[in-house]
Amino acid sequence: MSIGNSPEDDRPSIEDNQLSIEDDRPSIGRALQQARIDAGLTIDEVSSSTRVRVPIVHAIEEDDFSRCGGDVYARGHIRTLARAVGIDPDPLVAQYDADHGGRPSPTPAAPLFEAERIRPEPRRPNWTAAMVAAIVAVVGFVGFTLFNGSEDGSKGSKVADGPAPEQKPSPTKSPASKPADPKPDPSDSAIAAVPKDKVTVKLSVLDDKSWISAKSHNGRLLFDGTLLKGESKTFQDDERVDLILGNAGAIELFVNGKRVDEEFETGQVERLSYTKGDPEVG
């Protein structure tokens, strides 16, 4: 009977065999390169068919995955290149995961659903809007009620009081008991209104129209034009106003506040001059 290890202990275990097999397999880059060469393809042809840039293809065949931009892109490039050169990509991807810490665990489905449920929660301010709308509605209702109450109260007071009796104007004492003062003659007020140190002539067209020319005592032209029905003109001078009236019959004439009673004919042309004295036809 021998003391020591038995023959079974000296035999390699299954795990040791597995490790030795894995150690014997080529690297990912070497496997892709050999498959490309066996397929008779160049790196440029593989790059054109896969749209993986030439520098990245070179780097992967050198087992440099730093240019891939991360594990996700590296796995994708490995699958793409393996299919392009005609080999199974799954063993190579598994080898990459084993060499780089394994494939990350998938994200549980529950947190995703919870995220979807949580996402609409920022819409809670709608409750605030609803509360504001409710407050506005309550305030409006209260205001409406108060307004109707005050209006009904005012109506009730009107009904209780009854329509106000129509007030008749109180009779005023008629000034007829007193002899009415005679109204002043328009010419009197006109006379009082005109300055006494000037000659004042006022023309008013009562009918149709009239052409008028007016000059001062020194020949300065005061007016030269046509007046239509209802229009009037007033002229003043220190000494004398000279007039030429076309269609004199259509004109009402006041001189120094007094109406000139001359009867002019329609279509008649009159040449007149007035001074600071009483109206006198020149």
Give an account of the 3D structure.
By secondary structure, this protein is an alpha+beta fold. Helices cover 44% and strands 16% of the residues. The strands form 2 sheets. It has a 4-stranded antiparallel beta sheet. Strands 3-2-5-8 form a 4-stranded antiparallel beta sheet, with no helix packed on it. A hairpin with a 4-residue loop joins strand 2 and strand 3 (221-228). Helix 3 (28-38) runs parallel beside helix 6 (71-85) and helix 6 runs antiparallel to helix 7. It is rod-shaped. The protein starts with 6 loop residues before the first helix and ends in an 8-residue tail after the last strand. The model is unreliable at 109-118 and 156-161 (pLDDT under 50).
List keywords for this structure.
282 residues, four-stranded antiparallel β-sheet, 44% helix
